[in-house]
Write a structure and sequence with these properties.
Helix content: 55-70%
Oligomer: single chain
Structural class: mainly alpha
Shape: flat
Strand content: under 5%
Radius of gyration: 31 Å
Number of helices: 5
Length: 114
């Protein structure tokens, strides 16, 4: 009988212990996941304007007005980036100018009258 036949491997034990998180650690982790929408104010302003286009109010303060316009411009720019990324590699998509859109709309109106 050889030594290898008599040898028994020692029992294996799970040596890793799970660390318990404190309530503070759990709260901070949740806070990191729930990020505030950076465009929330711009979105709310757009909803307000579209809900009452004839009666929405604008800020009296020039600084507030500037922040409002900048936030809407930044939101618009982010949407353009998202749209460009979604359309990347798709053939046949072209950007239209305001004039192109107006011409197309006018042509459709004429077609419907005929």
């Amino acid at each position: 009988m050889s030594d290898s036949e008599d040898y028994e491997s020692p029992p294996t034990q799970a040596s890793s212990k799970k660390r318990k998180l404190s309530a503070k650690a759990t709260t901070s982790t949740k806070a990191k996941r729930a990020k505030k929408d950076p465009f929330a104010d711009a979105k709310e302003t757009i909803r307000t304007v579209l809900a009452a286009p004839d009666s929405f109010s604008l800020p009296d303060d020039n600084g507030e007005m500037r922040r409002l316009v900048v936030s809407i411009a930044e939101y618009t720019q982010s949407l353009e980036g998202i749209t460009a990324a979604a359309n990347a590699g798709r053939p046949g998509l072209e950007h239209k100018t305001v004039e192109d859109i107006k011409k197309r709309g006018f042509a459709q109106c004429e077609d419907n009258q005929g």
